[in-house]
Amino acid sequence: MSSAFYEISGEKKWRILDDLSPEAVAGKEALTQALGIDPVVSRLLWNRGYRTPEDAKAYFSLANEMLGDPFVLTDMDKATERIARAISTHEKITVYGDYDVDGVTSVTALLLYLKEKGADVSYFIPNRFDDGYGVSDATVTQLASDGTELIVTVDTGITANREVETAKALGVDFIVTDHHECCETLPDAVAVVDPHRPDCPYPFKELAGVGVVFKLLSALEEKLEGVDRITAVNTVALAYGDLIAIGTIADVMPIVGENRLIVKLGLDMISNRPRPSVAALIDMVNAKGDQRDKLKKKKPQKISSSFIGFTVAPRINAVGRVSSASLAVDFLLSEDAERARETAEVLCDANRERQEEENRIVRDAFAMIEAEHDFARDPVIVLGSDDWHHGVIGIVASRITERFGLPSILVSFEGGEDPYPSPEDVGKGSGRSVKGLNLFDALSSCEDLLVKYGGHELAAGLSIKRGDFAAFRERINDYARERLTREALVPTLDADCEVTGEELTLGLAAEIEGMEPFGVGNPTPYFVTRDLVVREIYPISGGKHTKLLVGAKDLTFEAMCFRMSEAALDLYVGEKVDLLYSLSVNEYAGRRSLQLIVKDRRQSAGAQDRFNAERTALSTILSGEAPAGVTVPVPDRNDFAAVYRLIRETIAMGEHYFPMRGMLSRLSTDPAVPFGYLKLGLILHIFREVGLISLREEGEDLYQADLCKTDGKVELERSTILATVKRIASL
Question: What is the four-CA torsion angle of 205, 211, 215, 221, rounded to 10 degrees?
Answer without folding.
Answer: -170
